[in-house]
Structures are given as C-alpha cells and as structure tokens.
Amino acid sequence: MSVKKVVPPVVIADKATKPIMGPLVVMSGFLTKRNRKLNRWRQRWWQLLDSGILLYYNSDDRAKQLGQIDIAHSCYDVKLGRENCPGVSFPRVAPSCCCLSFTVLKRSYYLYAPTAAEATKWAETIKKASRVLNRRIVAGVERRKAPDPPGPP
Average pLDDT of each block of 10 consecutive residues along the chain (153 residues)? Predict the structure, then answer.
C-alpha cells in the first residue's frame, strides 16, 4: 500500500487581501479659491490629509484632482477675515468672516467658506496640522543630527 504525502497548499498573499492604510482625511468640504493668474474665484472640494497635504478637486466626487498644497513644512500666516488680506478683492457674496488666507513657501492662498463657522474650523485645523507636522519634522531632523554615543573605551 502506498502512502501519499499530504502537502499543505501554498498560500500566496494577494495585495487585494491586505489592508492598505493610506493617509487619513482630517477635514473636507467646499471652499472657493482664487486663481492667482486670472483673479477668478472657483468653488473646489478640499481635503486635508493627516500627512499635511491639502488636495483640491473640481467637485466632491473627486474625479479630477486640480492641485495639492504641502502645509507640513512651511505653512504660516493663517488669517481669517477680509480685513487681514489687503489688496485682495473678495467677491461681494463672501462675508468678511468667511474669508481666510494662508501662505506656503512665499505663495499666498485666498479662500472663502460657505459659513463663518466653516472658515474658522478650516483656519484652526490648518494651523493645528501645520504646527504638529512642523514639530514632527524638526524633531526628526534633530534626532538625525544627534551625534552617535561614544563607544566603549
């Protein structure tokens, strides 16, 4: 009588079965952005990712990404209110309390939200994300620059 050797099946891990963790969306919603070349205002769907990237799309279906802004390294000067943006002509439909601006790498972005509460929430979230990410980056740079501990004598 012959004995058959039982071989366990070979399992090949499939990429589709593994959970893929991408950046998480911290905040999303509609904001109207000023085009820097034509000075026109266009409503865009925005997403702030936990990696410090602000993405904006044509619409909330996110079919076409129009751009991205990296706020992790050098986002500063986040302001609320039309009076804090001298020389910028916000549309009349945008109340002063709904306007916000911020600067990244010497480029200023001008936006307005549908409501004052949303504008405030966006401004606070961008400030907080930028501060937290800047601290992580600085801490990482300091850790890498630290000298190696001395070896045994």
Answer: 48 47 86 86 93 91 91 82 83 85 88 92 90 64 45 53
- 90 contacts: CB under 8 Å, gap ≥ 6: 82, 96, 99, 110, 112
Please tell me the distance from the alpha carbon of residue 74 to that of residue 100, in angstroms, as a whole number. 17
CB 29 within 8 A of CB 48: no
pTM above 0.85, yes or no: no
Task: Indicate the DSSP class of residue 3.
Answer: P
Alpha-carbon distance 27 to 126, whole Å?
9
- For the chain, the distance separating the N- and C-terminal CA atoms, rounded to the nearest angstrom, is 69
